[in-house]
Write the structure tokens for this entry.
Amino acid sequence: MVSDKVSISTGLCPGESRRLAGMSVVPSSDEPKGITVLPPDEALQRARPAPSDQELAIEGLTDEEWTAFETAIAER
């Protein structure tokens, strides 16, 4: 027969109790973190053109380095 009861040890003797110490809290920043969702009009105003192929090109890579780069990207 399997018991579904769980025993948790608190390290306290019966009748003992502990108090939580006061903790400070880091004030929240007004700066958004992660993804920011904007209304469509504002998103269009903030939009920037995508970089050209020339700006995105990685110069001076060997074929082996390029293959390693593609493999690393594919594994993400």
Notes: The two ends are 46 Å apart (CA to CA). The mean pLDDT is 78.
